[in-house]
Amino acid sequence: MATVLVVDDRATNREVARITLDDGGHQVIEATAGAEALELARRLHPDIVLADVVMPGMDGYEFVHRLRADTRTAGIPVLLYTANFRPDEAAPLAAAYGVTQVVSKSADPADLLVAIDHALHSDPATAAGGPGDAGAEHLRAVNAKLVEKALALDESEARFAALADVSPVGIVSGPHGLHATYTNPRLSDITGLTAAELQGPGWLRCLTGVDRDELITHGLPGGQAGYYGEIHLGPDQRRWLHTTIRRIDDAETAPGGFVATVDDVTSVVEAEQRRHAEERRRIAERFDGLARLSGAVAHDFNNMLNIVLSFTEFTADAVQDATGAPLTGDAAAAILADLDRISTAGKRAAYLAHQLLTFGGREVVALTVLDPNAVVAEVTALLGSPGPHITVDTDLQPGVRHVRADRAKLTQVLINLATNARDAMPDGGVLTFTSRDAGRDGYVHLTVHDTGHGMSPDVLDRAVEPFFSTKPKGHGTGLGLATAYGIVRQSGGELALESQSGHGTTVHLRLPATDEPVAHISAPVTGSAGTGHTVLVADDEDGVREAARRILSRAGYTVLTAADGRQALEIARHHPGRIDAVLSDVVMPHYNGPELAAALRGELPAVPVLYMSGYADPLMSEQGLLDPSVTVVGKPFTAEQLLTALHTVLTAVTS
Fold first, then answer.
1. Which of 21, 60, 83, 304 could bridge to 345 as Cys pair (CB 3.0-4.6 Å)?
2. Cα separation of 645 and 504, whole Å?
3. What DSSP letter does each residue of 521-562 carry, written as one string?
4. CA-based torsion, 118, 119, 124, 130: positive or negative
5. Strands 237-248 and 257-264, how do they pair?
6. CB burial class (10 A; 0-12, 13-18, 19+) of residue 270?
7. Measured in whole angstroms, how far is the alpha carbon of residue 107 from the centre of its chain?
8. Contact assessment for residue 120 and residue 48, using Cβ atoms and an 8 Å cutoff
9. Which secondary structure element, helix H or strand E, spans residue 508, and what is its range?
10. Tens digit of each residue's pLDDT (9 = 90 or more) over 506-535
11. Are 601 and 553 spatial neighbours (Cβ–Cβ below 8 Å)?
């Protein structure tokens, strides 16, 4: 282990050398200048000296010359450690001063340790020539390096000036404190101030008042700091600026100065503000649309509920009046007429609810493979003549590929579109259905075109909104296009409108194509007596549960009832007899329908589960489709619908 005196005016260089020498097992003494190093060498007499070449006050060559001139330190080996001179440049002059070896600061740490070891085990170097020769060579080497550095500095300054001139950000620099001595042209562009106005503390106008006061009070922060805010540069000039300030320090001297960049982010901030404003506008429009939707739904449902409640009272009064007396034909007819009003209102409410579910893509659909030309032909046959002086034409491509869709709902879409077209042609016109196979894009295109009055841009923009209608009050619900849009979207297709005032309207339907054959349409299965079968009914709505129980009991089924999924599971576990089927609501507490079905697989693995629901979302995929193996009876259901579905499920199990 040797004692090494490291002489360097920069702390980082000394630290790097110390770490390397520590790893080599040496003890390090540090000096920041030549004079200090001479005093330490005389007093501590280190085994070797590692000295920088370029240092203020006394460079490495002069330090070695004075070290050799003192008999107390003349024999100490010296290595020169340089980043400015190449070893081959420094070696001749170093030898003249009696330096053992020159090592580059960029060399591998192992090279430094090898040089130290070599110097320690070699004879002390002596000067190669006289002091005069060395001094002259010293001056030539230093002058040459100064010229080289000056040229490099000129080149660096020119490069910096070129970069600063084309910089997209403002640049500020100063030698001390917060006073700028340089600003680039871009900063003047950003601020609208001249270079003279930005000199000294003028550039601080790029900061907010709070940030500026903090900097003036506390001075430059250590390292790097960022500042951001809206800056008022004049009566009509406001800019959003992002300023980054970096303090330039030498750890052993006073602060060396600062450099700052000023980035004008006004366009970015304003774009973000516009985006937020647009988002707020869209949110407001959505809330406005929801308000119109909820108002329209409440209006229609309240009308229907008013009919139900009023005619229920009339029926109750009529029954009460007839109690204890013979029920005449006229009285019975009046009661039945009131009940028919109640039933009609209920059906209207159910239809409205299904339309809303369809628009939201959450109606139960049964996708099958269809021939789109055949569906169009059926619709045109049903339409006949839609209205006075209206002609129906078709332009159907022969052999167009089949599509996947719900037959009844696709028919409903085409009829809705035909109805809209008829209303748009009060003086007559032409309604045209076309079909085209799109080929590569995987869709079949159907269009419904009319020659009616068309739509203005603002009407076209809102045409598929539910309850939006241009028809007179009482002449439509405003759900026709909304329903069509929901049906096509849930089928995996697209609906687009093309219209112009005075030039008619074209509705484009794009439906997923398939090469599969058309599905066979089986005859509907009617319900049958359920004698000998036991059905477990689970629904958290008392009225629905009781209605299902009555329908099934009248048909001869034995019925077990549960108010939620957990109770249904307990009944299944403990019922002593056989359970042939489970009829479950989809949305209910303590196990919804799918969760109950999953739990029942362990108790009744072979028993089918039939769902009843007005909202089957938990059963649907992200596209709003049901698994083909799932059977759902939509609420509200009739006795025939429920019995037919249950009979179909039971028949499938036993077949």
1. 304
2. 44
3. -PPPPPP---TT-EEEEE-S-HHHHHHHHHHHHHTT-EEEEE
4. positive
5. antiparallel
6. exposed
7. 50
8. yes
9. strand 505-514
10. 999 999 999 899 877 555 555 555 678 999
11. no
